Amino acid sequence: MDMNLVVLAGSVSAPPEHRVFESGAKLLRLLITVRTDEPRRRVDVVPVTLWDPPDELRQVAIGSRVWVAGSVQRRFWDAEAGRKSRLEVVAQQVTLRPLEELVEDED
Fold it and tell me: Is residue 46 part of a domain?
């Protein structure tokens, strides 16, 4: 059985992109920074897309701590240099992390 499930905890590292399409559908794009120390120190910046985000995410800002749950997808598009692609997380849910977790993370 295959499974495509991603769970991230990190911080917003760039200004969020909010889009509204003619159909009325809304899109939120975020870049999430995830820092790890094990097995070695590493910083990853992961693109995240969320369709029809809840109103509470309208005010998400650089530095906001978030939980993301979704799946990995490869997106394709045509560019001047030819066909391009990138991996991104298509989120089912993005949640602001509570203040209590921020205090625990700093320990």
Answer: yes
Specify the number of domains making up the chain: 1
Write the pLDDT tens digit of every residue in 63-97.
999 999 999 999 999 999 999 999 999 999 999 98
The CATH number linked to 72 is 2.40.50.140
Rg of the chain taking only CA atoms, in angstroms: 15
Its domain, for residue 35, covers: 6-105
Q: Alpha-carbon distance 53 to 29, whole Å?
A: 10
**pTM here?**
0.82
Buried b vs exposed e over 38-47: b needs ≥16 C-beta within 10 Å? eeeeeeeebe
Q: Does 1 fall in a domain?
A: no
Name 58's bridge partners.
none
CB 58 within 8 A of CB 97: no
Positive or negative torsion for Cα 11, 14, 15, 21: negative
Specify if 77 maps to a domain: yes
